[in-house]
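Encode chain A's predicted structure.
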Amino acid sequence: MRSRPGVDLWLVLSAGLILLIAFFVLASGVRGAGPGIGIGQHAIRVAIALGVAWLAWRLDTRILVRAAPVLFGAVLVLAVAANLVGALRAGTNRWIEFGMVTLQPGELAKPALVLLAAHLAWRSAYRPLSRGSLFLAAATGMALVFAVAAQPDLGSAAILIGIAAGIAFLTGYLPSGRALAAWAGASVLALPTLWIYGLRDYQKARILSFLSPESDPLGAGYQAVQAQVAVGSGGLVGVGWMEGSQTAYQFLPAPHTDFVFAVLAEEFGFLGVSVVLTLYLVLGLRLLRIAAEAVTAREPAAAVLVGGVFLMLFLQTIYNIGMVGGLLPVKGFPLPLMSYGGNSLLVTGAAIGLAASVRRRLQET
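Encoded structure for chain A:
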């Protein structure tokens, strides 16, 4: 498929079609969501996200990569501030309010970490980093993880760890076999301490309900059970748009955010799910293709940036879908490009725009 020079048409089409399908799914999901939440508000946020994506596409990513330590430091300050002065919602301090603008540092932390990794790749230029640089990067990265986890937002903290591990694997900076085994052993030994002192009661209940949601179907296991009912009732072609009983009668929790994929499965069935999964697959393959082109062009920072965007989006996508399908514990993860939520849309739009910017620059050189 041909496209304008500098435009990756497959990237634009896959992301655009997911956004379009999301409008139909959310039109059903936002029913009964409360005042101030509607498809009109979502349309405004999508328009802003598209504008951000366009600006990111026009931006030279090398500027951001060089300024990454400053941007990372700003996000780290915001993440710490959220624990101190953040708006309390559902028992967590994940948001900072500036008048009508609400920032979620846990979302901003993901691209900040990716940009920091790209900055390190730019600094090294295919030469091994010094132990001091690696230690400093690991220490600042863990500081961000702990700041996000303390809000508490263990889901975003886990995604940050996944991004870091994925980039370390792709760049060859994983520790040796012995060191990796030692880290794994230490992590296993730390699990009891984390369970006793690191998790709140509701987080423990979610994990236990994941193992046996039927044991408490009206309590801790309610979300998982209702999501599985919605997915199972969709069948091959779904029950029909706006006809999902789980959504209409508000049995399904958070149908416009965390469980939007369950609404898709119930109302559009296996065929609808297959279309959306195919679009996510195309989007992921295009990101990997751009990263590979950057490697061929000997642009290590660009390759790490786009590879990090891939990890950022698809770790969250895989977890959200696995959670809805009952394969993973319930956690408050928006589904990229589909869930209702301004911070997630803006960050996703910016990330895809930056990946597209890398492709544009590679084509121009």
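DSSP finds 14 helices and three strands in the chain.
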